[in-house]
Amino acid sequence: MQYCKYHPLDGATYYCEQCKVHQCDHCVDDEPVLARCFVCGHNLESLGSGNKAEPFWRRLPEAFKYPLNASSMSLIVITSIASVLAMLMPFLWILSLLLYLFAAGALLKYSLTCLEHTALGEMKAPDVLDAYQGGISLLLKLLVITVVLVLLVGAAANYLGPAVGGLLGFIVVICFPAILIRFAQTESMLEAINPMAALALIGAIGLPYGLLMVFILIMMTSVGLLQEWIGQLFPAVSYVFQSMVSSYYTLVVFHLMGYMLFQYQDQLGYSARSDDEEEQPKREAADRLAAQIQVLLKEGDYERVVTLYYQAFKQFPNDARFFDQFFELLYTCKKTALMADFGSTYLHFLNRKKRTDKLTPVFKQIRLIAPDFLPDAPALRVQLASSLKQQGDVALAVKLLNGMHKQFPDYAELPQAYYLLSTILEQLPNMQAQADKCRQMAQQLEKIAERKKLAAAMAQAELATNKPLSVKTPGRSPSAMVTKSGLHLELVPIEPVNSAEQAD
After folding, report:
1. Which of 4-13, 43-52, 344-353 has the highest mean pLDDT?
2. How far apart are the first and last CA of the chain?
3. Run of H or E including 332
């Protein structure tokens, strides 16, 4: 049995001739039609579902449910009643024989059809309409095969001795399920009684073939016990019930033989897929992309992995798994440059998805890999600083807010940011003077913001009246007001060794 290279516990369903690796359904590109390799892009060879099919002895509950449908049960009832009627009309032997051949032939044809369909992966019982066509000819062929085998055993016992005849009879009994399987596949008497073909089939399946034989013997014994018990209690319905049970068990056995072929399809030289798998919907594009990333990651192709992740961020901006997985990858591999580039993107994503409880832990994780990292958005810095203040991490909160008037001079909430910085500094020892300067800075920034609003309102009024308004305003920019106002905010170092951060 072959297993997937990337999921060693899962059976392989495809093989890449280019990469020389086995893969499961999850690890291949199944779009549009032909499966392709995520690594090299070549078309894959289908191995069917044999490697992932569970052993037939674990499917016994499903096997006993196989004939339990209206179509199969109607055939069982009709053929059982017809068989009993044929037994009750010995005086009309021609009609009785035809009726019996019809019933037995229909059941045999349907049983062989069940075996063939199951071997091709169809786990639901087929329609019974085909059972009424060609069943008698198949029954006669099977009778000829049985007669030939009996004659061979008898001839061996007569001419070579009872020991040889008994041994040959035992071999024929053991090989009879294999003969039925070959007959179902080819409908040819010569192919069915070919001893080499039967032995090859048994050798390919191995021990499970013996387990199937034991199971068949158990069911045959149970039919005899039911016949004895029912015959004593209800003699009138004994024959009908026995025939129904026997027909039911026949369909179960042929289904199990077909499933055994399906399970060992690789050894038998063909490929088939289960109808349950074919009915599953195709994967979405995001799922295929996620699967490709995982395959390439296990292959160690990190350059393509990074490219695909950034493609996923653009193509699926709301899919959390891509953002979370890429962050975990960068954190685990300690990729400083990539973490510094991706950190702000991931924080914005968490904020957009209302996952605010993860903002500060993620921010601290980012700084462990990229110590100089700070978010690229002023609003995000203020939000993080407020959370860090509540958590008692005031030093990191100061680093987020210090110098924002230089980096983001047009940020509308600068006054609030510096008010927040002043309250944070007040919690630090010997920082009261710095807190007062921050508060003064916030007040000046508020005045500048008011002037900007006034200038904007006047500009709107001028456009509305088409008349220039003469307004005496200082002939300098807002940033000049801050830098030339005589207020210079120089924060005292809050870390012991040469880590002063100045904000002019």
Report:
1. 344-353
2. 71
3. helix 320-333
What's the pLDDT at 441? Answer: 86
Q: How far does CA 89 lie from the centroid of its chain?
A: 59
State how far the Cα of 48 lies from the Cα of 22, in Å rounded to an integer: 12
What percent of the residues of the chain are helix, what percent strand, and what percent coil, each to the nearest 5?
70, 5, 30
> In this structure, how many other beta carbons lie within 10 angstroms of the beta carbon of residue 490?
11
80-116 pLDDT tens trace? 888 877 777 666 667 777 887 888 888 888 888 898 8
Cα distance between residue 110 and residue 149, in whole Å: 24
Residue by residue, DSSP assigns 353-420 as TT-GGGHHHHHHHHHHHSTT---S-HHHHHHHHHHHHHHT-HHHHHHHHTTHHHH-TT-TTHHHHHHH
Tokens 């600083």 map to which residue? 385
C-alpha 183/C-alpha 178 separation (Å) is 8
In the chain, what are the domains?
Answer: 14-47 (no CATH), 56-268 (no CATH), 283-368 (1.25.40), 374-504 (no CATH)
Q: What is the pLDDT of residues 415-461, one digit of tens each?
A: 999 899 999 988 888 888 888 888 888 888 888 888 888 887 787 87
Q: How many Cβ atoms are within 10 Å of 127's Cβ, its own excluded?
A: 10
Residue 232's pLDDT is what? 55
Residues 6+ apart with CB under 8 A from 262: 49, 50, 53, 118, 119, 120, 121, 272, 274
Alpha-carbon gap, residue 270 to 65, rounded angstroms: 27
- How many Å apart are CA 183 and CA 302, to the nearest integer? 54
Q: How far apart are CA 5 and CA 296, in angstroms?
A: 12
Q: Alpha carbon of 370 to those of 262, 284, 384, 418: distances in Å?
A: 55, 35, 17, 26
Residues 281, 286, 288, 292, Cα dihedral to 10°: -160
pLDDT score of 449? 80
Strand 21-23 and strand 28-29: the pairing is unpaired
Convert 10-71 into a string of H (helix), E (strand) and C (coil).
CECCEEECCCCEEECHHHEECCCCCCEECCCCCECEECCCHHHCCCHHHCHHHHHHCCCCHH
Phi, psi of 49, rounded to the nearest 5 degrees: -105, 10
Reference 183, options 192, 196, 194, 172; nearest CA is 192
**What CA–CA distance (Å, rounded) separates 77 from 73?**
6
Q: Which DSSP category does 125 fall into?
A: P
Q: Where does residue 430 fall: left (phi above 0), alpha (psi -120 to 50 degrees), or beta otherwise?
A: left
pLDDT, tens only, 302-358: 999 999 999 999 999 999 999 999 999 999 999 999 999 999 999 999 999 999 999
